[in-house]
């Protein structure tokens, strides 16, 4: 009740609505976010390993076994192929084992995979290690954001939701920096040490309350939620909301979710999501991340190739924060336009540079150009085509098919990643590195047309509004609809 004095002898009383309490982020939630984000750092390190390691691995003065260009392409390409399998396997695992146990299950295989690579006496050991690592990457890339989305309060999800992406890029940067001082074996042993703090911290945090509710273990769900929100927090309203949301999801669950994907109303948003994933990977980003050192070495850059790689990693890291600030201010399509144009210009520039160099032209006076182009390329990618395909996957896919459709889109993304990384060496051998960059640039031009013609703007729109526009009906908003999957700008 607020009382306002009107005159000395008169007053008017009226009631004003109570202000909503400001959500406070507990230390427990920060610890949970930090724990899963350390797993994200391991994923980033694993993804970037090939770039600095492959050069020393193919040096017979350092390596006791031969790594040909073909086997080297498999060292890079087998990880995303195994990641595809891990992404498919991760779906059932998080449902049956739980989110926390699935994440924990990746830590020890991560360590073993790196030890296999570090102690390798034959290229087959490296390939087995990379395959095991890729399997864990695929499982982690699915389970880490699900855990975070189900444990962090919506009010602070934007802030803490940045941590996995930031730590993933820290892992990439760490790999690039360490690769300047360590050979492939030493780098692998460093990789084996990274999952240890991740493993220890994961034992300290609980399973998600939502998973406990799905298993009818409400007492455990209440304890987990109390740990996350603080001892003094009243968790009963939130727990009831989780239970109600689960009941709604169960009521509307389809027994033939995969067949629902082929319905005309569902096919449009799925195809848009697949298109964004396709153009994300066919921009050539993984060729850049996996083979950065090799590319700079062949460019004959006037700057040391390892230093160039570190600079690219720093730009990749910084661009994450820039994208987070801009996505909800400029809108998705504007950032996709900026991203695509930046990539087209830089890829065409790189192609022209390599074309001149391969034809014997003197390019020593523009030796700085590859680094400048790579910096703008990575910055452009990280602003748009890096995070937005994952973000829009959660926005445009209908709630009824979101799980199965997201699995298809994720598997398709890993498939494209494998194709690009595995065939990059073959493409450069067939049409030259200049031809490869021109090809990626041409794909980006088609991608720009795709965004203009088919991708909707979702900025500031509720999920109900988006679905009403795309499908002509309204649905209830899923409580996990705002989960932002991992994006490591790859």
Automatic annotation (TrEMBL):
Keyword Cell membrane: yes
Membrane topology: Multi-pass membrane protein
One Pfam family named in its UniProt record: Sugar_tr
CDD domains: MFS_GLUT6_8_Class3_like
Record field: transmembrane: 30-51, 71-91, 103-125, 131-148, 160-181, 187-205, 270-295, 307-327, 334-356, 368-392, 436-455
Chief location of this protein within or outside the cell: membrane
InterPro entries the record matches: MFS_dom, MFS_ERD6/Tret1-like, MFS_sugar_transport-like, MFS_trans_sf, MFS_Trehalose_Transporter, Sugar/inositol_transpt, Sugar_transporter_CS
SUPFAM superfamilies assigned to the protein according to its UniProt record, in alphabetical order: MFS general substrate transporter
Highest taxon, organism lineage: Eukaryota
Domain Major facilitator superfamily (MFS) profile: 32-459
GO molecular function: sugar transmembrane transporter activity; trehalose transmembrane transporter activity
UniProt family annotation: Belongs to the major facilitator superfamily. Sugar transporter (TC 2.A.1.1) family. Trehalose transporter subfamily.
Function per UniProt: High-capacity facilitative transporter for trehalose. Does not transport maltose, sucrose or lactose. Mediates the bidirectional transfer of trehalose. Responsible for the transport of trehalose synthesized in the fat body and the incorporation of trehalose into other tissues that require a carbon source, thereby regulating trehalose levels in the hemolymph.
Name of this chain's protein: Facilitated trehalose transporter Tret1
Gene source species: Anopheles darlingi (Mosquito)
């Amino acid at each position: 009740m607020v009382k306002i004095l009107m005159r000395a002898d008169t007053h008017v009383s009226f009631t004003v609505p109570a202000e909503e309490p400001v959500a406070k982020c507990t230390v427990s939630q920060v610890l949970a976010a930090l724990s899963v984000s350390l797993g994200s750092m391991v994923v980033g390190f694993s993804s970037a390993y090939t770039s600095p390691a492959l050069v020393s691995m193919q040096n017979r003065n350092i390596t006791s076994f031969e790594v040909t260009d073909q086997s080297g392409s498999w060292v890079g390409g087998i990880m995303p192929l195994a990641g595809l399998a891990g992404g498919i396997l991760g779906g059932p695992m998080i449902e049956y084992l739980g989110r926390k146990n699935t994440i924990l299950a990746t830590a020890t295989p991560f360590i073993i995979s790196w030890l296999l690579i570090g102690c390798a006496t034959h290229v087959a050991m490296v390939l087995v290690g990379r395959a095991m690592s890729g399997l864990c990457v695929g499982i982690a890339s699915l389970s880490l954001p699900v855990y975070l989305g189900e444990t962090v309060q919506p009010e602070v999800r934007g802030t803490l939701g940045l941590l996995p992406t930031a730590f993933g890029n820290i892992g990439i940067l760490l790999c690039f920096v360490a690769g300047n001082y360590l050979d492939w074996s030493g780098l692998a042993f460093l990789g084996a040490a990274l999952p240890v703090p991740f493993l220890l911290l994961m034992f300290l945090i609980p399973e998600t309350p939502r998973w406990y509710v799905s298993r009818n273990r409400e007492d455990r769900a209440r304890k987990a939620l109390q740990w996350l929100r603080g001892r003094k927090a009243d968790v009963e309203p939130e727990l009831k909301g989780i239970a109600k949301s689960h009941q709604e999801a169960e009521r509307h669950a389809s027994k033939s979710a995969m067949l629902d994907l082929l319905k005309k109303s569902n096919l449009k948003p799925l195809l848009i999501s697949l298109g964004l994933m396709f153009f994300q990977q066919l921009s050539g980003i993984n060729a850049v991340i996996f083979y950065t050192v090799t590319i700079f070495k062949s460019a004959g850059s006037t700057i040391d190739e390892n230093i160039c790689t570190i600079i690219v990693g720093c730009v990749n890291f910084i661009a994450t924060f820039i994208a987070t600030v801009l996505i909800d201010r400029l809108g998705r399509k504007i950032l996709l336009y900026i991203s695509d144009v930046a990539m087209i210009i830089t890829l065409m520039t790189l192609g022209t540079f390599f074309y001149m160099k391969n034809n014997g032209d003197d390019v020593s006076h523009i030796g700085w150009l590859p680094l400048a182009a790579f910096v703008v390329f990575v910055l452009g990618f990280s602003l748009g085509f890096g995070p937005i395909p994952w973000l829009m996957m959660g926005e445009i896919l209908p709630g009824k098919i979101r799980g199965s459709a997201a699995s298809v889109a994720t598997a398709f993304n890993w498939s494209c990643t494998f194709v690009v990384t595995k065939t990059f060496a073959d493409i450069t051998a067939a049409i030259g590195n200049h031809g490869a960059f021109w090809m990626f640039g041409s794909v980006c031009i088609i991608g720009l047309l795709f965004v203009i013609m088919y991708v909707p703007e979702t900025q500031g729109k509720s999920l109900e509004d988006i679905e009403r526009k795309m499908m002509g009906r309204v649905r209830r908003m899923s409580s996990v609809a705002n989960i932002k999957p991992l994006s490591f700008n790859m």
